[in-house]
């Protein structure tokens, strides 16, 4: 343990506090984020940070505190350090949000990196969110969660842990306020959460706790305090703005492992066109590759892939290719030979290349923690672009190896560059996919500089949003899998990854028509809207489930197409503010306890509330409404929140509500952009933001701000800051009553 305080030395943004057996550096950055590091740990090097560490806040002051401790006082936060090393984060009003008890280290017998444990206390009423992609949530129940990116090797159900994306990122919501805590170590570890208990009085409360145990790495932490929006803004400024998907990537994607041939792809696309169903992308899985080898094409089954891609593109449909990290260990193949020549593959301590087993058979794995290897790999996407692909889907990048090394990944002794510092797989494992995503993203930036890359990845780590998004992975077909799909998207959004979605219908099995339709209806309101299934699973085309499901699916697809300008606006806002598209109901009112525990509905931006049907046989459902007036978009009926309402949820649709006063950009009947305005309550005003963007380039359109208010008997909509007297730039359609 640190021992008692010895002395302290002020420095930029805070200073260094020395204990008898350790030292603690505290820095408050200009964006309000707090950093502390034990035993000389600095903010850099870090795979999570985007660029350099933010500048220290020159106004933050280190000063003595009571009982021999010290504190750093800044505008947005106060950090108090006790004489034995407990660190407490307080709001400017003095409310304690988090108390990290003195850490403990263990030196392993025989040497090696020190293991450490950090226990934290938060309010008894606090709720935990985050930790990456977790299937139980979005509010995380008490229990132990592992920090080790893992392929479960089968379709997973709720509660299975860990999954493909783990992050030591916690978002904590309590009566006292909201904060995000990030322990910046990529090593294996566990987080044990315990819910608090509230007694008759504050003196009888038992704090909620989080206990983090890590197998190595620096003991360093970032904490951001404020409203949820301010916290995610600070997080994005620290770890990087989310990548902006091209406009087409916000449409509907159809994927399957097992298309098998160009003829089958054409048949599926013809079915969409014949039934009048919008389709924006088709994804090809490993069966289009030559013997499952990355950056190849099976010429027997896909003899004219560029021609197919061009045909689809003429119909407004893009091709997306799967890309895995495993390279078949076969001399004479271009990818292997060029990688071997450049010493690109992971080696063991003796210098021998590590071989595993993946879909192509015996395989080797690039060391993406080396800049030179990332540059080599990024250049390989030229082959994919030449085949006509417009987007890329990274899979099996935990990384997964079928070899029995004791677990289904590379041996922990495997050596990695780690940007020249050197280390082994214990440290590199969790950032492997993050570095692969960086390689692909940066390579595509060079190869197609005029277009925004589209890339999403099964695995990743803190900061992965800089390079793209993710999806659920192999979620099990079933009603529990449907519920887990929503939990994953919401939890990832609160970790700074706004673009994600599930395999609609589930990865395995045969969904019933009802389950498929309810999954499809949910997917239509999530950022990545993709049907997908495994090799031996049932069909996923809407017309395969009967005429009734087909018609209801058509309604969902048409509504998604109509809302594309709103999704594009949310994508631009996510890039600029870090706010996820899909937000928990408590986003604007974290002090509302009833909303904190609601896990079956969500806000889509500020304007819409979506209440999916997650249980079989339901034709109505209860919906918890936040404060304000909300319109049922199907019936136009107004409801007043906060409170719970019971609404109809027929098979034809799921309940969706619009906030009174909302101004939404939507696609009009003529294909142009129009403003859908939901009447504000009498005596109140409303508004909304619009970012017009129908392209795939790098232009950053201006944010247009609109207000809506009653003037006499009509609703008037005005654009702020316009040169034409506030007249809207688009046609306006007002819905709802006064």
CATH class of the domain at 5-239: Mainly Beta
Q: Identify low-pLDDT runs.
A: none
Enumerate how many helices there are, as a single number: 13
Cα-atom radius of gyration: 26 Å
What is the CATH topology of the domain at 5-239?
A: Immunoglobulin-like
How would you explain this protein's 3D organization?
With 738 residues, the protein is an alpha+beta fold. Among the domains are: 5-239, Sandwich (Immunoglobulin-like), CATH 2.60.40; 663-737, no CATH class. Strands 5, 6, 7, 8, 9, 10, 11, 13, 16 and 17 form a ten-stranded antiparallel sheet that branches. The protein has an eight-stranded antiparallel sheet with strand order 1-2-3-4-18-15-14-12, with helices on one face. It has a seven-stranded parallel sheet with strand order 28-25-21-20-19-30-29. The protein has 13 helices and 42 strands.
């Amino acid at each position: 343990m640190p021992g008692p305080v010895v002395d302290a030395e002020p420095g930029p943004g805070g200073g260094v506090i020395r204990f008898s057996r350790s030292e603690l550096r505290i820095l408050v950055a200009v964006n309000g984020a707090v950093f502390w590091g034990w035993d000389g740990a600095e903010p850099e090097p870090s795979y999570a940070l985007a660029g350099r560490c933010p500048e220290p806040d020159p106004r933050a002051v280190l000063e003595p505190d009571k009982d021999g401790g010290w504190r750093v006082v800044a505008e947005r936060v106060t950090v108090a350090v006790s004489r034995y090393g407990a660190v407490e984060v307080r709001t400017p009003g003095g409310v304690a949000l988090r108390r990290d008890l003195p850490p403990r280290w263990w030196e392993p017998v025989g040497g090696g990196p020190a293991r450490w444990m950090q226990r934290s206390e938060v309010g008894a009423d606090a709720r935990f969110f985050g930790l990456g992609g977790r299937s139980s949530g979005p509010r995380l129940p008490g229990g132990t969660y592992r920090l080790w990116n893992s392929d479960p090797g089968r379709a997973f159900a709720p509660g299975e842990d860990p999954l493909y994306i783990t992050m030591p990122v916690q978002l904590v919501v309590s009566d006292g306020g909201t904060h995000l805590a990030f322990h910046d170590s990529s090593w294996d570890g566990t987080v044990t959460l315990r819910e608090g208990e509230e007694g008759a009085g504050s003196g009888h409360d038992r704090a909620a706790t989080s206990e983090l145990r890590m197998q190595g790495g620096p003991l360093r932490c970032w904490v951001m305090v404020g409203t949820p929006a301010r916290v995610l803004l600070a997080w994005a400024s620290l770890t990087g703005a989310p990548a902006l998907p091209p406009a087409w990537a916000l449409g509907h994607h159809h994927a399957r492992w097992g298309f098998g041939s160009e003829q089958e792809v054409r048949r599926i696309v013809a079915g969409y066109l014949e039934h009048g169903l919008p389709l924006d992308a088709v994804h090809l899985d490993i069966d289009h590759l030559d013997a499952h080898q990355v950056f190849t094409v099976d010429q027997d089954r896909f003899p004219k892939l560029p021609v197919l891609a061009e045909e689809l593109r003429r119909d407004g449909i893009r091709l997306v290719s799967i890309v895995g990290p495993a390279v078949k260990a076969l001399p004479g193949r271009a990818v292997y030979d060029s990688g071997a020549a450049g010493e690109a593959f992971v080696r063991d301590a003796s210098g021998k290349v590590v071989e595993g087993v993946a879909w192509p058979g015996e395989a080797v794995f690039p060391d993406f923690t080396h800049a030179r290897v990332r540059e080599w790999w990024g250049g390989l996407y030229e082959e994919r672009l030449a085949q006509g692909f417009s987007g890329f889907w990274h899979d099996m990048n935990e990384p997964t190896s079928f070899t029995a090394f004791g677990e289904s990944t590379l041996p922990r002794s495997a050596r990695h560059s780690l940007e020249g510092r050197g280390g082994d797989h214990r440290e590199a494992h969790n950032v492997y996919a993050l570095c692969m995503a960086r390689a692909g993203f940066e390579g595509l930036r060079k190869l197609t500089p005029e277009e925004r890359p589209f890339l999403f990845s099964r695995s990743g780590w803190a900061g992965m949003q800089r390079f793209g998004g993710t999806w659920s992975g192999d979620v099990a077909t079933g009603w529990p899998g449907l519920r887990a799909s929503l939990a994953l998207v919401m939890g990832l959004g609160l970790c700074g990854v706004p673009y994600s979605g599930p395999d609609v219908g589930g990865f395995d099995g045969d969904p019933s028509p009802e389950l498929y339709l309810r999954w499809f209806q949910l997917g239509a309101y999530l950022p990545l809207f993709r049907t997908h299934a495994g090799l031996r699973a049932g069909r996923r085309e809407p017309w395969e489930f009967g005429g009734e499901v087909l018609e209801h699916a058509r309604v969902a697809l048409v509504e998604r197409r109509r809302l594309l300008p709103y999704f594009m606006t949310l994508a631009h806002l996510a890039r600029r503010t870090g706010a996820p598209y899909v937000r928990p109901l408590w986003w604007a009112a974290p002090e509302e306890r009833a909303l904190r525990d609601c896990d079956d509905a969500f806000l889509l931006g500020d304007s819409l509330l979506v209440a999916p049907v997650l249980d079989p046989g339901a034709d109505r459902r209860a919906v918890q409404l936040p404060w304000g007036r909300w319109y049922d978009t199907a019936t136009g009926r107004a409801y007043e929140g906060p409170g719970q309402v019971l609404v109809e949820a027929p098979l034809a649709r799921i309940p969706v509500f619009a906030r009174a006063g909302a101004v939404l950009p939507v696609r009009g009947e003529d294909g142009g952009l129009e403003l859908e305005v939901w009447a504000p309550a009498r005596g109140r005003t409303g508004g909304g933001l619009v970012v017009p963007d129908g392209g795939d380039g790098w232009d950053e359109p201006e944010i247009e701000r609109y207000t809506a208010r009653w003037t006499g008997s009509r609703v008037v909509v005005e654009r702020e800051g316009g040169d034409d007297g506030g007249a809207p730039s688009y046609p306006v359609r007002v819905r709802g009553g006064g």
